[in-house]
Amino acid sequence: MKLAYYPGCSAQSTCKELNVSTQLVASKLGLELHEYRSATCTGSREIRAVQPELFLALNTRILAMAERDGLPLMTICNTCTLNFLDVIQMLAEDKEALARVNASLAEEGLRYEGRAVVKHFLWVLLEDIGEERLRGMVKRPLAGLDVGAFYGCHITRPPGHYGFFDSRNNQALEKLNAILGARSIDYSGRTECCGFHTAAHEEAVAIKLVGKHLKNARDNGVAAIVTPCPLCHTVLDAYQPDMERDTQTRLGLPIIHLPQLVGLALGLTPEELQMDKHVVPLDLATRRKVIPIAAA
Amino acid sequence: MVSLDARRIGQLENRDTLEAKLGALREGDMIKAQVRRFSPGEQPYYETFEVPYQKWMRVLDVLIYISEELDSDLSYRWYCGSKMCGTCALRVNGREILACWAAAEPEMTIEPLRNLPVIRDLTVDRRPYEKRFLELEPWIHRDEPYPGFPEPLTHREMRFTSKALDCISCAACYSACPVVGLGDLTRFCGPAPLVQLGQAALDPRDSRERSQELIEQASIFSCVSCYRCEEVCPASIPIVSKVIEPLKALAYRTARKKPRHPQTFLGIIRRRGRIDPSELVLRVQGLRALARLRWAVSLLIRRKVNPWATVFGRPIPGIASVRRLFRTFLRTS
Amino acid sequence: MRELRAEALVIGGGAAGTYAALCLHRQGVAPLVISKGLVGKSGASIFAGNLVISGRVLGNTEENARDTAEFLIKYHNQFLIDQEYAKRCGQWIAEVYYPELEEAGLYLRRDDAGNVVTSPGRLRSVAANVQGNSGVPFMDLRRKQLIRAGIPMLEEVVVTALLQAESGEVCGVLALDIASGEIFCVRAKAVVLATGYADRLHRRSTGTREMSADGIALGWRAGAELVNLEMQWWHTNDVRYPANWQRMQVYPNPMLGSWKSARNVNAKGEVFFDQQEDDPLAFGPYTVQLKRLVKQVREGKARYDGDYYSGFDHVDPAEVDAYTTYAKLFKQLGLDVGRDLVETAVSAHYRQGGLLVDPATMASTVPGLFVAGGVGGHSNGLIALVTYDGKVAADSVAQHVRDRPYASLPPHKAEEEAKRLQGLLKPGATPPVRVKKMIRELMWNDMGVEKNEAGMRRALEGLQEIRAAVLPAMGVTNLTKIMNHGWLDAIDAVNMVEACELMVHSALNRTESRGPFIRTDYPEMDNESWLAQNILVPTADGGFRFEKRPYATPYFQPEFVRKDNLAVQW
Fold first, then answer.
1. pTM score > 0.95 for this model?
2. Cβ-proximal residues to A131 (8 Å cutoff; 6+ apart), any chain
């Protein structure tokens, strides 16, 4: 299966290991990724809010590339995913705005017609690879690994896109955990906010928002957290020492990118998946549970 | 074959649809309602009531049944019973609802709203919430004299205001907002106060300069964009995308001193096409970031940050397109 | 006991009370607003679905303007209205009301080209933001106008008695703060009673939670004359289930931007009413619909408490959603608005009757007591009309308080009232909320849509029994003074018994049928005898007598003397 691939900014800067592990795992799964190197940032929350027309234009340009190539656009970041979904909807509702953007895109030979399909890697795994095939590809079931899911916000809210009355009812990551052989542990933070989007100017908010949930995860016996979003990862991993100070608790919770967790089950090593790039290292007990038998 | 929709996994299993909620109970089934009781000077506790289900019963019907048949002392607030007055907002199983509107569920833990003082049982003091938005003067100020009835105005101009005007001021989102829940850590006024302000500030007839109000008093850039408010809004207002973001745009457009975070972000994208988070943090926080030296070093070791790229990083291959889009679509006034 | 002072005290935080307060403030009189609920949130004003266009504005033709006046006098008031008052009111609405509201920021719904969206037809209306929800932004605006003007508001405070000087003049009130349990009095130079049509006296009623006919009971205990108390209007299209949705209406009115309206279907599946086709003037209070329903009930094809249906199954759902909230109840019940009907039932709605006032001044028959809005017996409520009342009452109060000193409060009366309230905060056999329920059941059974003397006598006996045996044994389960709804219910129950008895007496005295007032023992509308005020006058011995005063009909006339009420087309 061939997919257009949009890694986004984080996976190309602070979370390079996400990009690396995604590509590695994709090739193991037989996914052919076509990356747009000239793709820009989707505007995150900032451009989106303060320059809505520019936001629309930046995203439409990327959607137009995928539409031109007739490929579904695969994302690996919650916020990028939601931005694309919103832009698709906004353009469907506002033909005048679409015409304005297309007039500009024409200068580089692009045009958007409203046919782009955007899929987060999590959805590709569950919908396109499918439970059966994925289970069949698991080489090293993550038996005994107690995983807590951290969805982040933009993959389960707003209800307009995802349809949940209560977004805490999302079970997509738990389903994936089960396929990979891991056990899902419930805790208070599963669908809570990581606070990334104000962390650049108010990191104390992120630390307070997440710390109590990681503490609850620890108390409930979570050994590692999996997240489908590099922004959440950045907060949960890089600020974890601050959360430990703030909650006065030793947390030591490894935060694993979604493709890394899949990669471990497919038999890749933590090193191949660049898990050593994380601030919080894999502790020995967890490491023993995820390292392929051959490599152990 | 029905293909799987991975966006909604868990919805059916957890009865997260209207159909499932409406079909969960049959006439005469017993509902188990655990209600949080509290009186000033006493410890809060939970009391369990069993209520027989009646057709299309709402949470409010359960509470009314409790007070008419089981315990006439239960304190809860409601007036209209039809999603207009917005005074019966509560939390059921941890999620904000309007009692008059949400279908009763087989098992319910019923609690008062968060982020507001509880007067007794399920009744909260709404005044601190109201005070937050009244400080923002959420009414239109006219510079020009009123031109006479009907004044020139289009729905297109009013599209955001109109959404904000759907607000019934129930404070469900104020309870759901995690940043409001952090108390004094930020000055963020919360979603509902911003919707109230949006009713005026997004109205083209309002001529008041709002940037200081929005940035300082309301601390609008402290919104983490978690969409909890949109999720619980009984009036289905797209609070983040149709109210808070247009207000952020207004604040940014009209502020003489631009808020640093979005401005820095725009600058980086204009130059490079992509964001470099370390540059963003450095520029937004300035010297404050360097104070966290130990942290910076730990990130450096793991190559989370790359000063070389930050200083010498090259723009993306499509930078010419980026600059064209900025020239065409960047709104400067 | 704490004593507050206000030049003018306004009781009630709905459309009438808030506007009276604003007008007083503009005239330099300092008002204080006391609301049993929350100003602009409790009460019926938020239920205004749309705003009827009066006079020659927004493209209304001369004919439209006349139709609106005809609607107001015939359909809306069944000729029980001072037609000169109606005329003044209509003029004010066209000239002052709309421009003032818009200037203050009210958003009358436009389309993308900037046209004000209206419902078409003979009687046209507009919406504040969205049809079905107009009262919400309207009253929210009023609440903010009061706050902005710095007008003090005491909320979730119930006034339990009007206090009168030796001369009989109203000089203050006694009130209970529900949240804190504090009993206090307010000294005022004048009181504006603006408690709305506020009664929730039937099993099914459009009234809001706090409504218990307080205004009628307060006025009566102060010696005010009451008029047309029997004139109870009904909603015919209210959702049968769930119980708390008893006022949730499938709006029969023509929709904005559409020629369609909801229709009613009986148990046999026969359509028996579609307003836009059958009678475009049959706006609230839905008398024409009610008469059609009575026929269905008599033919066994519907019941007043259900077994008939309403909805938009003949309308494109996009048309319903374009400018209205009418689909919201269907969505929440899992129904498809374009395909499904919902089972509906009758709910008691406005009461036209109330305190007798001079509509030129809104003065009641008690000195110092003025009235605005639904609690008055001069007209049926409509948000525009009651707003006008607020203005008229404010003008009169401003005159009344000028150079007038505060009268001193009679201390023993306040103490007596406080003692009465404290006496209600006691343990007892029957919880007050249960007593309220008993009253509502009794009223529903014997003071429902179709009445007769035997039933009404039964209702009276039942009420007397409650007064004699149930009220003394009534008691709360918790003696706390903090947010004690049991205590409040006890206060309400006393008022309800009082008001219900007066209503039954008034109904017995009007020996005819008129519009929604339907007596099976007097089925004819009788314009010879009863085109008249049915006035209840308190007597010195604590009882009452009736007086009758005919209405003048200078602009519109009923055009017949006697006719079977159900055959009267309006």
1. yes
2. A175, A179
